[in-house]
Design goal:
The structure is a homodimer of 326-residue chains. In chain A, helix 1 crosses helix 11 and helix 6 packs across helix 7. With 326 residues, chain A is an alpha/beta fold. In chain A, the strands form two sheets. An eight-stranded mixed sheet of chain A has the order 3-10-9-4-5-8-6-7, with helices on both faces. In chain A, strand 4 and strand 5 form a beta hairpin. Chain A is built from twelve helices and ten strands. Chains A and B meet through helix 8, helix 9 and helix 10 of A and helix 8, helix 9 and helix 10 of B.
Chain lengths: 326, 326
Amino acid sequence: MGGDGGIDVTVPAAAAMTARAEVVLVGDRERIHAALPAAAPELTVIHASQVLSPRDSLADVLRRRPDSSMRRALACHAAGHVDAVVSAGDTAALMALARSQLGMVAGIERPAICKDLQGMRGRFWMLDLGANIGCSARQIQQFAHMGVLLARHVGGVARPRVALLNIGTEPGKGPDVLNEAADLLEADPRIDYVGFVEGDGLFADIADVVVSDGFAGNIALKSIEGAARMAMHLVQNWLGSLSVLERAGLLLARSKLAALRHELNPQGYNGASLIGLAGVVVKSHGSAGREGFQQAIEEATLEVAGEIPRRLAEGSADPDPAFSPS
Amino acid sequence: MGGDGGIDVTVPAAAAMTARAEVVLVGDRERIHAALPAAAPELTVIHASQVLSPRDSLADVLRRRPDSSMRRALACHAAGHVDAVVSAGDTAALMALARSQLGMVAGIERPAICKDLQGMRGRFWMLDLGANIGCSARQIQQFAHMGVLLARHVGGVARPRVALLNIGTEPGKGPDVLNEAADLLEADPRIDYVGFVEGDGLFADIADVVVSDGFAGNIALKSIEGAARMAMHLVQNWLGSLSVLERAGLLLARSKLAALRHELNPQGYNGASLIGLAGVVVKSHGSAGREGFQQAIEEATLEVAGEIPRRLAEGSADPDPAFSPS
């Protein structure tokens, strides 16, 4: 029921993904059926009588909306009826309900938000993107392990390189907690730690996993989105500045221009993982369209296929160090 | 003497700016004369026998390089021989030497690094971009005043709107210190405070001055640079993907394509202000070319013309509140 486009986005997107996953829709049954495309396959719909609103406080979300679609979907996951939950609703609400419904993996102190972005060579995973402000070095190390797990078992990166997001690359730069985390990662035999990375190196194939607390990670991600939108705006202005003749010349390259615009779109790859939970929960960007929501569903199927929760739980049962991402 | 390109960048750039400023070059006299273009006007050269190296510690910079070009240039400024210093050297070294040579404006606790970027409508000023990790709410308020001063008297923005960089726009979001700073700015009659802004809103003409501590600001700025470079990379790839025929079609729009590439270049506007000091000091990006270094010189001339140090000093002499940016 969530996201800017609501069920007009989520329902058709879900209907288009039935070859990849057995999709269960949770929300207002009548509205969902009305939004289903005519030719859509038969989908399971679980009714929920309430929808969370952006004005709901976390107390509302957790205690005063017992039949919200988000809560019901997560309860289905907790009960084992589904393997993953995908939502376009509010991130803080999703994180709070997921923690209360699914619980954390033992040994992980804090859940994190992780997303992969396209770099100049390959994709890279960033976490935490906003779940935690102010983390300990030990928590940052746990984020590194979780990121490695996703890069390896969802992204297929055999030996993910890990970097810490900082405001300088030399050891000693930036906040103390990052230097403590650097020491932990350096000494961690399961981590291929490559050092600090700055924002301008994120896309330069320096690391496969870039770790930070949720404040720095969110600032970086949102700034990237802002800059990407600015770049698209400049490309649009450029197109608008062309004469009829110049535009005619460009017509030949039109389909490839559409591909460029797609690649410049910061929402081109949608779906952030809520990681550290005893389950698979993927957050779709509120402004994502149908294609974007399909990508979020695809991300969930990949995490299920990669057995992320099991690996996380097994790893974290290791006595010392806390867990192995292998 | 500083920057990736050294005097091959700075000297010709300075020689090209003599119509805008009376340029004094400080560094190795012989090498500077050798780097001067044949047709260059007569420029004053002040010899300095040492050049700072990236391997120099701050203790080296401050105590063991008494005749470094950077120190000598700042000493010239402190003695009143020049109105501003422009350097492509190390930021931390420049900040440390500038503080020791010029001193701070009374009433300002910390200097900040400020830079303006092109947004979708107009330019906007960001600070602090890396001089201070962990600031008090009061220091953030001082940064806001300094940013307003630059936006107004260098940028010509009559009533600059001020926002705080955060990871959510609703009051209460993010770290406590930002919410304390929001209260201070809200209550400050000299500040047109418009609330929190996220990274994805930086370019969207929400604010003219975006304030943060140096950690968040640096993460945002560098991430923008990284994303902009990624966008340029995608445009390059797109051009490379075109067939001969498609490229021929594009030839018509070639000059405008060059303009687009220029606008996408994150170094398109170069020159960061070290603000809060009793003087005008502009840092040119280490990787800036001649045109970029000229922009940094231009920025310095604008700050001198805008009488930034005087306004800062007069404002900060106000008993309560600490100073007025008007």
